[in-house]
Design brief:
about 0% strand, 15 helices, about 350 residues, 2 strands
Length: about 350
Amino acid sequence: MTTFTSFKHPLTGIALSQRQLALMLPVLALAALLPLVTNDYWMRVLIFAFLNIGLASAWNLIGGFTGYASFGHGVFFGIGAFVGAIGIVRYQLPLPVVMAAGGVVAGVVAAMFVPVLKQKGLYFALSTLAVMMVFDTLLQRWTFTRGLRPHDLGWSVPPTLTLTEYYFLFLLLCAGVVATVILVVNSRAGYAMQAIRKDEVLANSIGIRPVKYKTIAFVISAAWPGVLGAAYAPYLSFVSVQSVFDISLTLNMILISIFGGAGTVIGPVVGGVALSVIDQVAWGNFLEYHRLIYGVLIVAIITLYPGGMVQLFRSLSERRQARLLAAATETQLARNDHDASQALGRP
């Protein structure tokens, strides 16, 4: 009997990872030049876009590639932000150290909730949402996490970098998340995750251990938000439960992934960029109808193209190729008719 464990790591996966990582380089180079031509406002917009892309890409690993939609993933971002704030303010730790600590703590917390991964569908989604509510309450009640003084309700974190430095920091972190997703989904573990998404029972029957690979996906997808949260703490300046445990953070991760194309590497990137542009255009030109326009466009794309913007681009590309093929075929037929006519001596 052939089992999943009997397969070797496919060379196609390695080659695909290398190609996708190589495609990131010109995009990173272009993004690195943007501070030269943008003002502080647009740099802040781009920082927020990088943050959203990173969070959505991390969520996409468990929600898109593995098929387990987590509605409490914002808890890991919040934990990372609190680790960053406490580390910087209480212990005077440097930013790289608190970022690493944020990722480790978020990953360990995710590993503690492995039993939740045995649930499926709506039950899993509600369980993860409940976890976020639990941490929301704990961090509000625990004096150690509320601030330096007992009556504090948050942490005032001094900025450690300039705006331009924050821009490059979040650009690199965003690239790190996307690179991690590329390496994971093109590995044996990534193929196992995608098999679980398609049919968990069948995957289990061929030797894939669902809990093991769901745990890998969950921990990795939790660790990166922890890193991003710790990096975001000094940029945000004031960290409280209300500011970093907002349910809208999780909803943004889900929305960006689905709008761009869940279960694809490029989907959260496209979704993050597209929604950031739509949000800014709608906000700047149609302030009173900002939310209406934003919502209608999201519903329209998801309804017409369930695969998100990635499916839309593929559809447009296929139509263009079909038109080019039809034109080439028509031209070839006309040429054949012309050649046949000449062979028969007709004008």
